[in-house]
HAD-IIB family hydrolase
Amino acid sequence: MPSTSASPRDPTLRPRLVFTDLDGSLLDHHSYDWAPAKPWLARLKAQGVPVIPVTSKTRSEILPLRRALGLTDAPFIAENGAVAGLPLSWSHARLERGPGSDGLAIRTLGVDIGFIRKRLSVWRERLGVRFTTMSEMSLEELVDFTGLAEPEARLARMREGSEPLIWEEVDERLATFREGLESDGLRLVRGGRFWHVTGDCHKGSAVSWLIERFQALRGSRPLTLALGDGPNDIAMLEVVDQAVVIRGCHDLEVSPDQVSLYRSVVTGPAGWAEGVAYWWGRADRRLRSADAVVRQSDHRGGQGRVPA
Ligand SMILES: [Mg+2]
């Protein structure tokens, strides 16, 4: 039934947020290209819908990428939930120190990288397990392993809150390793190419934190969509209203506990576009210009409690 009133319960008029994994999702797993997603990115931008990267990449890697993708108005989550970057419209005067020269306030949601590295070497010795962390790889090895160009590989090594590693043991030994890390308050998460060791945070906790922040600043509950292709995306796919599992270039199982789930037929950015179109391209769920209302709201005049 068509409605003319701007009820916050009307899903076509609620502000919307898109949370997206990058590698293998918005970006092609091999070429890092995103051309098939461009029409939807432009459409979401025109409607004032933030597209928020939620990735295992570092802050240093994301900064040039979000410029290239045209996502500089949106926040981002780096290192699997360990780091959040907030543009002025998403930061809170009472809670964040003034933004840096890039206009971003940075929040660490996890633990310091120094602690993670120290504990990794302790557990390697104690359990006698073999793995290679990203910080132990030469630049050349990293380029070979990831297919990144050298300048990008350099940025990938600038970690702030998580350490990727290549596991060089049988999978059966992972459980003991994981238990050891957990006793230190650390988590082991599988990404596309690496295992990632982080503090007690993940993509899901970081996305929930950002949704709460949005509600506190704008005073309305957004309709949320998340897209990802890997096991490290599961937590994120479970805390949103609608989710897309993008067909992966791997055989890892990605089965989030989510009733509003769509699985794309194609991989990478084409699957990304397919997933957004599935949820928001249909007549009954289409984006409306009313979504743009969110752009007009005063971010400093937020209502309610602001999550720290
Ligand atoms: Mg991925």
In short: Residues 19 and 226 are 5 Å apart (CA to CA).
